[in-house]
């Protein structure tokens, strides 16, 4: 029996177990940096499987498992993020979130369950492993600022790693379909804040004021022109202003206004150019209307997620032995798995969960987000298969 058939038979033993783990985590979601019960479940499960466990790697809720083969080989890291989102679940599944205002709306519950399933398969087939398999259970991917990957890396989780792989469940693809690409696959999220300082006054006499709301609207219109007229249209790129705050009463023109938003790009030159254009636009528009302005960009944001071309080519061939594989277009979402890929070559890929018959049609981050649980065994299978194959390279 070849490796793929062996693993396919083995995963049948734990298909329901994987689903039950996922449901338990789904019922008890935890926000970034607060994944206490989730990390406890992970550590206990790994120990029951006989896996060496290290807790508190860089963050209190981070967990790392290590499976060592019987002969020298490569070190392969597999990563699952664990945190939930501040979303009130509106689906009617029997295992819906028990925590008000918190939900696994991005599928991280499935990521944990699939990697634990992969761990089971790897332990059962330990004689096929060379080197070391490192299981990374990461907190705080959804934080969007520092994120959980960076402190784990600083604590040494990627030391000696030769390859790294990660899976993200996605409703953008049909159930059971793997999707990835060589090169940039996810964007960098440059969050920005623009503060406009004007001169307040009475709403009946705007000519006596410097209206920061009016100035903000001119800035917003000009900024949206960056996409249309300054950036090569074949480049994946977007600017979105997502909040505008100003004022207290209908007859008062305020002193200040604040806007926040995000720039998403897949190219460092485009990213730099867009930020430069934005600074110039804000400065010029404010100057025209006599206001003063500040532009601030969040520092140390998630880098562009870049898949190693050679590794990804091999990953696509390996995954095609267990399911359909498609080459996807880049996604303008962001991921701190990008930081792991800066430390070792590897691949980030999606596993589709869209199934109209089961009502799994809502996008990630929706309050109705639904997962076709039949695909979870494929995620576990993919983890184990890639780990064994690349540990023996």
Automatic annotation (TrEMBL):
Binding site for Mn(2+): 106, 108, 142, 168, 365
Listed cofactors: Mn(2+)
Domain Peptidase M20 dimerisation positions: 192-285
The keyword Manganese appears for this protein: yes
EC code: 3.5.1.14
GO BP term, example: proteolysis
InterPro entries linked: Amidohydrolase (IPR017439), Bact_exopeptidase_dim_dom (IPR036264), Peptidase_M20 (IPR002933), Peptidase_M20_dimer (IPR011650), Thermostable_CP (IPR053493)
Domain of life the protein comes from: Archaea
SUPFAM superfamilies xrefs: Bacterial exopeptidase dimerisation domain, Zn-dependent exopeptidases
Record text on cofactor binding: The Mn(2+) ion enhances activity.
Similarity comment text for this entry: Belongs to the peptidase M20 family.
Role, per record: Can release basic, acidic, aromatic, and, to a lesser extent, aliphatic amino acids.
Protein name (Swiss-Prot/TrEMBL): Amidohydrolase
Native source species: Saccharolobus islandicus (strain Y.N.15.51 / Yellowstone #2)
